[in-house]
Amino acid sequence: MVLFLIVGVSITLWLCPINKVWGAVLSQSIVGWFLVSGSLFSSGCYHVGLAWGLGSDDVSSVLISLSFWLLPVSLIASVGHLRPQTQNVRFFSQLCLFIIFSLVITFSATNLLVLFLGFEMTLVPTLLLITRWGAQQERVEAGSYFVFYTLSSSLPLFVCLLLIYLSMGHGCISLFELSICNNLPGFVIFFCFIAFLVKVPIFGLHLWLPKAHVEAPVAGSMILAAVLLKMGGYGFIRLTSIFYLTFQNSIAPVLIPFCCWGGLLTSLICLTQTDLKSLIAYSSVSHMSLMIAGTSSLSCWGYSGCLIIMVAHGVISSGLFYCANLYYERTGTRTLNISRGLKLVFVYLPVFWLFLACANLGFPPFLNAVGELFIFSAVVSYHLVNYIPIALSALFTSIFSLSIYQMLNSGQLYKWNVLNMKMSEREVVGVLLHIGPTFGLIFLPSLLCM
Length: 450
Known about the structure:
By secondary structure, the chain is mainly alpha-helical. The chain has one domain (about 135-450). About 75% of the residues lie in helices and about 0% in strands. The protein contains 18 helices and no strands. It is globular. The two termini are about 20 Å apart. Its EC number is 7.1.1.2.
């Protein structure tokens, strides 16, 4: 059904008159999200639809639903900067659809090679979004970083997956024998994990992410932060279940403290940033590093916290990039020292930003607080020393999250910032589509485990 929905939206995209493309695609995307979510969550089976190496379970269902939710939201955010380029609307929307299609393949893969195929299918459309619709000349450099990091980690991953397939005779994730998989050479297991850690990314493998976020259009930043990074987390979860013993004995003792201290250092880097999108990008690195640390504990609390953080971060980071774009469209700059005093002319946006900032720092009762509590418990239970970087990271995350709100909304208003400050209905709807799930998951957390 998912594939038919994507094909249907694509056909509508190319057959509709150009002045009706936005309405047709948005309406079909919203209806498709409801249909896909209802279909995925209505089944209690561990795997649904094993044809073509595809299926779904509790983890993949949530991430597929998140991907379909993001499609109409990203298109709503893109109306403003695509309106002068009407002839490119179809191509832009088709790229977003293809990324969602690739994400569905990745999250529903039951075969390692199918997982790799979906993993790599996102490369070209994401690169086109960055280089074609980026706002500055540095977009080519950002695209080069993105391609280099992706290919340099993916090519060894492909070779290692072929070795696994040849040694096992199959690539089905649910049929792997742990005793055999853990007898594979250590370099094979290492390169399998490193590719997904680059995609997450954790501290030390993150240099491509701030550049990609800063240069990408708003839809590219939202898709990248909300779901593309989650491919790394999803693949990491799958591999830990396959190489459980080797990971527990050899990799986890090194990876957990590295991610904890890396998350702390990234939080400190956030305090030095003056570019709004760059700051949000480094915030994502900090959250994802802690998420990997929690997953590496191999505990139930760690896995639960990982899933909660992936969903919460997907919604919140997308909302932060969306609000940052609203500021940028009016002021023409992302520099925090210039974008000041906006609460004097905005009515609703400072309130929306305060909600997202509190959710980002893990303020109760937002979902991020629950996920971080689970991860903190799992990581500290693994080793008590990990409490130091975890606690400091939470402290500095709170500081820079509230600093963004304070810097944007207080102070003296610059003269050129007073024009076109009224929010349109489309922009309010886009913000509410982020605020709604953030609050909805507080009252209905069971949606994450249906």
